[in-house]
Specification:
Elements: H1 6-18, H2 26-60, H3 76-104, H4 110-140, H5 147-158, H6 167-196, H7 202-219, H8 221-232, H9 242-253, H10 262-307
Helix pairs in contact: 1-10, 2-3, 2-10, 3-4, 4-6, 6-7, 6-8, 7-10, 8-9
Amino acid sequence: MSKLSYSSIDQGSHLFQSMRVEPFNPLQVVWDGAIAGAAAGGVVEAVLYPIDTIKTRLQAAHGGSRIHWKDLYSGVACNLAGVLPASAIFVGIYEPTKQKLLELFPENLSAFAHLTAGAIGGAVSSFIRVPTEVVKQRIQTGHFTSAPNAIRLIVAKEGFRGLYAGYSSFLLRDLPFDALQFCIYEQLRIGYKIAARRDLNDSENALVGAFAGAITGAITTPLDVMKTRLMVQGSVNQYNGILNCAQTIFREEGPAAFLKGIGPRVLWIGIGGSIFFGVLERTKLMLSQKRFDQDLKSCQSAVINTRR
């Protein structure tokens, strides 16, 4: 704007005044959300994958079985190949759904909009997340050495349905997890912004994300244990569904088994929440700023044209 004289701005001010607020653009929101989600999900998985591997091995171990601490990055490439599109789909669905629901719900019920949007985003992205999780955890627990080998043998022995082993338990864990984590995060951000009377900075977004992730991770650990057991059992079929899995674990290993891996899980999701939401908000801000700069440039050109 420094290139424009004040008189130029006065002459073209009617252009700004006449500009109407652009209507809700779902495609733009989906696109921005997909880019931000893929960036956030990819960074989290790449950085924290070893902690996830340790958590999976702890949960898959029966009784006093020992776990090994080698090859903590086994399957990371396959996981990233699935996480990037899954995270893009999740946030790409979550953001426009949240915005539309916030228009429908009164302000004091915004938490329901966040809960619902999180659950819907999780349900849609599960079609990619579940096969990715199955292959990843089979590699992490030493069943296979590579993703192509894992996919080929799983399909050969268990059929295509084998890639969706534990799907119901995954939904049982992840729908509440996604809904709660995003709801807690969004509500904390709203409260913080009201108290501080300003937007949150990057470190504050990260701190809120860490808290939301750690709390949600701890609450959903029993569901995560059952999901892991169902996904890694393969064709052995030790467990016949969620209820049978819960009963068997309780009978053979006691109630403490449902909290296996809670330490690494809370650490992983707490740090992961910090990174995920920090990267997510920063990427969304960058995309928004880029569009704003483009719009401002267009307005500047329009003002200059009015002088000619």
